[in-house]
Amino acid sequence: MVGQQEANEMVRGEGIVKRFGHLTVLNGIHFQVKRGQVVVIIGPSGSGKTTLLRCINHLEKIDSGRIYVDGQLVGYREVNGKLLEDSEANIARMRSQIGFVFQRFNLFSHKTALENVMEAPIYVLHEPRNVVRERALANLEKVGLADKANAYPRQLSGGQQQRVAIARALAMKPKLMLFDEATSALDPELVGEVLKVMRQLAEEGMTMVVVTHEMHFAREVADHVIFMDKAQIVEEGPPEQIFGNPQNERTRDFLRRID
Ligand code: ADP
């Protein structure tokens, strides 16, 4: 299917349906993320934002539809027109190219910040230790934590831990970064330092899909905003449109309520 891909396309979702039991959580989602774009997904709690993000790297299996990342079908192989589940090895390889930053950072508590960042490139990519170490230090510097390389997670604030988690994701040299409410678990005074790192990544041209409640960030950093409600994309467009002149009543209603 690579032939059908637009050259500048990083992610494409076609007719995504996801159910949990009888509950349809994604009901026919089509979306696109271009290379270098920051796409922010907003919407009420329970609308399916996190699930959509998790489907992109196959943490959730979709019930129908297709997702492509960089031209590759995610989670499945197409054989004679039929979709077969892809091998664990292929899925792991695909995931290793996609950075995922969660609400909870889940750092290894018995490892330093530097060791946390070095872990995956050594054990997943099997890169030489000295190369990984150099890059890990550069990534810690990028998130403003060069001086905390030898600190353990318990010695770091929530905001610092989340920045280590971002450095850890960057250490895999991802082509795409997914952020799932990366600042929601933080004390309010620590939110800004994490958003700053995300903004910097966006400015450097990283392709990002961001689920967030930070509307200020969405307005300023997004190239494209998707508003979801009740398992569907209700409205999408540039931030000026979604925030400045929303067309749909449900979008207007949501933005009014969170103001
Ligand atoms: P959002 O991120 O917009 O808050 P979610 O994608 O987390 O929404 O959830 C969408 C719906 O799917 C909710 O009703 C939620 O309860 C349900 N859901 C999410 N994950 C699971 C799961 N693993 N099992 C059952 N239901 C789930």
TrEMBL record:
Matching entries from Pfam families are given as: ABC_tran
> How does this protein sit in the membrane?
Peripheral membrane protein
The keyword Kinase is assigned to this record: no
Recorded GO terms, molecular function?
ABC-type amino acid transporter activity; ATP binding; ATP hydrolysis activity
**In this protein, which residues make up the domain named ABC transporter?**
11-255
Tell me the domain of life. Answer: Bacteria
Q: Where is this chain's protein located in or outside the cell?
A: Cell membrane
Please tell me one Gene Ontology term that the record gives under cellular component: plasma membrane
Family note:
Belongs to the ABC transporter superfamily.
Q: What is this protein called?
A: Polar amino acid transport system ATP-binding protein
Question: Which source organism does the UniProt entry give?
Answer: Thermosporothrix hazakensis
